[in-house]
Amino acid sequence: MTLSHPTQTGSRSATYDRPAARFTDDEQLEVRASALGQCRRALWYAATEQDVTNPMSDETKTVLEAGQALEAVVVRAMQRRFWTVTPADPDAPLQVEVEAGPGLTVTGHPDATGAIELFGDESVIEVKTRGPEAFKRWQTLGAERSHPDSVAQAACYSLGLYGECRDVVIATLDTGARSWDYEVIPAERVERAWDRACERLAPLAEHYELHGPNPEALPERDFTASDWQCQRCPYLNVCQPGEAAEAVDEADAEPTEPVSDEVAHDALLKYEQIQQQLKSLDADKRGALKTLQHWLQQKGEAKARLEGSAKTRTVGMVTSRRYAVDHKRLNALLEPEQRAEIVTEQTSEYLRVS
Ligand code: SF4
């Protein structure tokens, strides 16, 4: 069963700041749509009203609130690009409630609905804001690989609003460049994302049926202390206090050879000096190459030999080609599993001085 209705609270914060999970009066486990991908033990802590041991820092709250405030900016940008978009009423957003399995419901508030001409049917628009790196990752890999929870969330809204999984739109703003883009996820893949989310949560509903709302009967952990999910978890200290401290210690571990601030400062000055030298060398190199190019053009030749300081060199124009992949079209055409075989992800680490 699915249904949607206007929220009754009238208070924006009360509407959106619901716990990630809770037990309802009719003994259902209710999970917030935006928390579909959360650790199941963390959902249990929320539902059993465990005290938060690791509250969000003020800085994280600011980032979160800035992201929420910018969602309206994305909607207006879409409207300027000829999308028909109906944003949620911030004071009385429509609430959807979707049955996700026996004893399990998912509730949430869709950001917006709308359509572009190509689409035809009205569908759910899930609005996200991402930092530059996460934005690039989403554009390249697609939301099903980079942020699968957002697809399951949109699937829930589609079921709640239309009673079916339709194509959904993920519209995302790059908070660095302040540019936006969108991705359309086809209905059958939206449905699969929803099925996966339901399968994942089903054991938690069974756990509730077996143990009732018992705060002591904890489900297994989904992550370990070194995972980012645990590092940001509001229940980290109660879930794994010893290991959490160890993970933090490891992350903060000093290098074996301690480096004083003075030595680091000297290294920075040296780095700046070399950067400056490289810049001016680069400008000189570009100037010399430009002169050689003009010389070649005057000769009317594509290639010519010229005596250098140590040997005779060939000066010639080279044509290079680059091949670009349209990730948006690729993501639309292929299943996420197929894409994972074609577009692989590699991470490397380097030090940036800015
Ligand atoms: S600390 Fe990690 S394992 Fe424990 S509840 Fe939080 S996310 Fe889950």
Helix and strand arrangement:
Layout: E1 2-6, H1 12-16, E2 21-23, E3 29-32, H2 40-47, H3 58-80, E4 84-87, E5 94-101, E6 104-108, E7 112-115, E8 123-130, H4 132-141, H5 143-146, H6 148-162, E9 168-174, E10 179-185, H7 187-211, H8 228-231, H9 236-239, H10 241-252, H11 261-299, E11 303-307, E12 312-316, H12 327-333, H13 336-342
Parallel strand pairs: 3-6, 8-9
Antiparallel strand pairs: 1-5, 2-3, 4-7, 5-6, 7-8, 9-10, 11-12
Bound molecules: iron/sulfur cluster.
Iron/sulfur cluster is lined by residues 39, 41-42, 221-223, 229-230, 233, 235-236, 239-240.
Characterization of this structure:
- The chain folds into three domains: 2-222, Lambda Exonuclease, Chain A (Alpha-Beta Complex), CATH 3.90.320; 224-253, no CATH class; 256-297.
- The protein has 13 helices and twelve strands.
- Helix 6 packs across helix 7 (187-211).
- Helices cover 46% and strands 18% of the residues.
- It starts with a strand and ends in a 12-residue tail after the last helix.
- The model has no long low-confidence stretch (mean pLDDT 89).
- It is extended, with a radius of gyration of 27 Å.
- Bound molecules: iron/sulfur cluster.
- Iron/sulfur cluster binds at residues 39, 41-42, 221-223, 229-230, 233, 235-236, 239-240.
Q: What's the domain count? A: 3
Q: Sheet with the most strands?
A: 5 strands, mixed
Architecture (CATH level 2) name of the largest domain: Alpha-Beta Complex
State the strand order across the main sheet. 1-5-6-3-2
| Helix and strand pattern | EHEEHHEEEEEHHHEEHHHHHEEHH
- Identify the bound ligands: iron/sulfur cluster
Radius of gyration: 27 Å
Q: Per CATH, what is the topology of the largest domain?
A: Lambda Exonuclease, Chain A
Question: What is the general shape?
Answer: extended
Query: Span from first to last CA?
Result: 54 Å
**Quick one: CATH class of the largest domain?**
Alpha Beta
Helix content: 40-55%
* Poorly predicted regions: none
